[in-house]
Amino acid sequence: MRKDNALERIKALRQRLKTMLRSPSIRFSHSKPKATEEEFKLEFGKPQSIAYNLIGEKTGRILPLFKDLDQNLEKSDLKVNFKVYVSLTVFASILITFAVTALIPLLLFFVFNMPLLSALLFGIGGGLFTCAFSIIGFYVYPIYRADKHGRELDDELPFSTGYMAILASTGVSPEKIFYTLSNMSVPLAVSCEAKNIVRNVNLFGLDVISALEKTSNRTPSERFRETLQGIISTIHSGGNLAAYLREKSRVYMKLKRLSLKKFADNLSILSEIYVALLLTGPLLLVIMLAVMSMLGGSSLGMLSTDLLLNLLTYVGIPVCAIIFLIVLDATSPKW
Hints:
By secondary structure, this protein is an all-alpha fold. The protein has 3 domains: 37-147, no CATH class; 156-257; 258-331.
């Protein structure tokens, strides 16, 4: 009887471990050993968890197509596993494609009175375009996040290195310096990197040099990587860390002034592009289509002038405005 009870307990424990390992969204925490039922439902109900549970095991064949995505996910600081993110990409692309393929023919046929065959062709084309655009969007998003995170680190380096130099000049150890940066009241990009260093030291038991090397290998900012490698070299050689950080702060402040001047020049160019594409261009197209309809040109190929005006007003201008905002956000400094 005792052997049977022991075997049953071992089987039950094995089943529980399998269940826990199958769900990638369950997070372990030392401060909260037992998650409540509501928290478990919330984690399981996330889109990435649903996508992984449905098609996660079937994405092994297409993972080599996203081989560069794993490194970009680490640099972007997105707390998502590589396989989970690929599953979310495929699952979301399939859903969006079917939704657009069904929605476009209905709108064109019932709202714009387009022939059924033309509406179906537009629906299939729109679905294929949406599928490609969705996959590209999911692929580019970590790259955009990594680039944005790197630019934020570069913008904060003149001030963060100066703050670190002040702490180092008072005799504070490197571990305490990064612990202070991780507990800043203002949300900063350098605080996220400092939290990773503190986590590697306190939770994973790494020494400060190994933690700095690990963070320097995954950071998207070349300047921040150079700073961390310089801190490692200074610690190894026993040099003056405060003097090194003060010099770095002066160098980065000069580069900051140059980048602000360059941004002022680029901003004038972007303003001219905005006026030409989003103000003058749509106005000329509206006048041209209105004149064509008055002269008897009621359609341009299979598209009527009314449909072209609606597409320009509700699709073309908003999409161009969103692209312009993304470009402006990608080029503008935070500080």
